[in-house]
Specification:
The chain has 505 residues and is α+β, with helices and mostly antiparallel strands. The protein has two domains: 160 residues, no CATH class; 314 residues, no CATH class. The chain contains ten helices and 15 strands. The strands form three sheets. Strands 6-8-7-14-13-11 form a six-stranded mixed barrel. Strands 1, 2, 5, 9 and 15 form a five-stranded antiparallel sheet that branches. Strands 3-4 form a two-stranded antiparallel ribbon. About 1% of the residues have low confidence.
Length: 505
């Protein structure tokens, strides 16, 4: 008996079966865990693509207008209604708005290590979420942890984790942050100091606020090169990718795109290059630019009436009032760089009778941002009226007999659209950014404006050669026609800005 027991004890036959029986649950458990992790990874990957797309779609609408959040929510519901991808473990479940939380943010933490929760509060307790449609520029999309059969955040595991005191579900909460980004490509490499900025921030206006209230309409703005203390009435240069500043201004492109939120200034303003480039738009080709008289990129405007009898190389206005340029503003204030607004219809009496030989027809105020049609027309309104009514060829009084039709340019006929006397230009709060302007640091512009060039730029000493840098310049005379942002007429935004959505997290 004892021998039988000893033999049984020492017998190793069938030991593998015992070990297999013991290890089988462990092996099956690891296999189920591997399958669950693979399923979880696949689901997370699919959900992440979904929330990425949702974040991009909603962020693309956050352009600072008053209805941006409304449009973003519509984009979210449209995207989720039209997509057919199924996310579920039991039955089919299409991802829906109830499965995600969307918050709109004014900004995001500087470090990616700073976590954002679904409500838009970061791990440092800072709240980034806002309901102001003009302030938000980021979209935060988070998948809710609510179960895939009812929502989209948790899914049931195959591994029976409840046997070891855990849950039979796994939370999957992918998150994405996308932001709205604007850039402008068709713009000259110039910036203009905000004429409505004051040294007291409480009394300053943004260019958008001034435009919306009608403060810009009909005013003449004059800008000269910014010095060491730039302010209203000054302009400066931006970094650009073109070798020739003159050509960049003549063609109307900086050779690069500028971010809506960051531009870098540049010193070394060469006034001769600025005025020579701008004056091509008036059919004036100084110095070596005479070789470009047939080049479409250097074409003039379709209406170049400027109060000059003859000449293709420099601006030399007549002094006998037999031809008149668009008139300057009244009560010009040098400290603000602007004149009064046009106050009455008789402002245009002399200009119209001299250049067209008839009574002024009370041109409508077509571009008035307030919507008023009874205010006196701006210079841009009159200029456009001349084009639309076929009056560009009218001759002014003898002996000048000037017309607005280009005569020096020898290329294909210029077209009224795009308008060559309109320039897209950055507007900068120069008082607030004096150190940055002089230090070539990236700064955020106050905005962008579409400006109309009223007259060519003239040398103070007009007897000298137009390319002579020793001759002083007169200021650039402008009107502001449109601005970017929610208060605009939307001509600048629609034609010049490139709207992009970008993933940040």
């Amino acid at each position: 008996m004892l021998g039988t027991i000893r033999a049984f004890w020492n017998d190793q036959r069938g030991i593998a079966m015992i070990l297999v029986a013991i290890m089988l649950p462990v092996l099956v458990g690891f296999a189920l865990l591997a399958i669950d992790m693979s399923r979880a990874y696949g689901l997370h990957n699919d959900l992440q693509k979904g929330v990425d797309a949702l974040a991009l779609a909603t962020a693309a609408e956050l352009d600072g207008r008053s209805d941006s959040i409304t449009r973003a929510n519509l984009a979210a519901s449209t995207l989720l209604t039209e997509q057919k991808t199924k996310f579920s473990t039991v039955g089919d479940h299409t991802l829906a708005l109830s499965d995600v939380t969307i918050r709109y943010l004014t900004g995001i933490p500087a470090s990616d290590d700073t976590r954002l929760d679904a409500s838009g509060v970061d791990s440092n307790g800072v709240t980034w979420a806002s309901t102001d449609p003009k302030a938000v520029s980021f979209s935060l999309v988070t998948v809710n942890a609510s179960g895939l059969t009812d929502g989209a955040g948790a899914f049931a595991t195959i591994f029976p984790a409840s046997f070891i005191g855990s849950n039979d579900t796994m939370d999957i909460r992918p998150q994405a942050v996308a932001g709205f980004k604007q850039s402008i490509c068709e713009t000259v490499p110039l910036f203009m100091c905000n004429p409505f900025e004051t040294k007291d921030p409480s009394t300053s206006k943004t260019i958008q606020q001034a435009f919306a209230s009608g403060d810009t309409y009909g005013r003449e703005f004059r800008i000269l090169k910014a010095g060491n203390t730039p302010g209203p009435g000054n302009f400066g240069l931006l970094d650009n990718n073109l070798t020739s500043l003159r050509d960049a201004i003549a063609m109307g492109t900086a050779g690069t795109c500028y971010s809506r939120d960051a531009i870098t200034t540049k010193t070394g303003v060469t006034l001769g290059s600025v005025n020579t480039g701008l004056n091509t738009r008036f059919d004036l080709y100084s110095g070596s630019l005479s070789k470009n008289m047939k080049d479409w990129a250097y074409r003039p405007s379709s209406n170049v009436r400027k109060g000059q009898k003859t000449g293709c190389t420099k601006y030399d206005p007549v002094v006998d009032d037999t031809a008149l340029p668009l008139p300057p503003g009244t009560n010009y204030v040098d400290a603000n760089g602007m004149s009064d607004k046009i106050a009455a219809q008789n402002f245009w009496t002399s200009y119209w009778s001299v250049n067209h030989g008839t009574a002024y027809p009370n041109v409508p105020s077509a571009t008035n941002p307030t919507g008023s049609k009874t205010a006196p027309a701006s210079r841009y309104d009159v200029y456009q009226y001349e084009i639309s009514k076929g009056l560009v060829g009218d001759k002014s009084k003898a002996p000048t007999k000037e017309t607005g039709t280009p005569s020096c340019y020898k290329g294909e006929n210029p077209t009224p659209d795009p308008d060559r006397r309109l320039l897209n230009m950055a507007i900068v709060d120069c008082y607030a950014n004096t150190a940055k302007i002089n230090g070539h640091i990236a700064i955020k512009p106050d905005g962008y404006a579409s400006v109309f060039v009223n007259t060519p730029i003239q040398k103070q000493d007009n007897t000298k050669d137009p390319d002579d840098p020793s001759a002083g310049e007169k200021p650039i005379s402008l009107e502001i026609v449109d601005v970017d942002g929610g208060f605009a007429n939307n001509t600048l935004l629609d034609k010049a800005f490139r709207n992009e959505a970008q993933l940040y997290r």
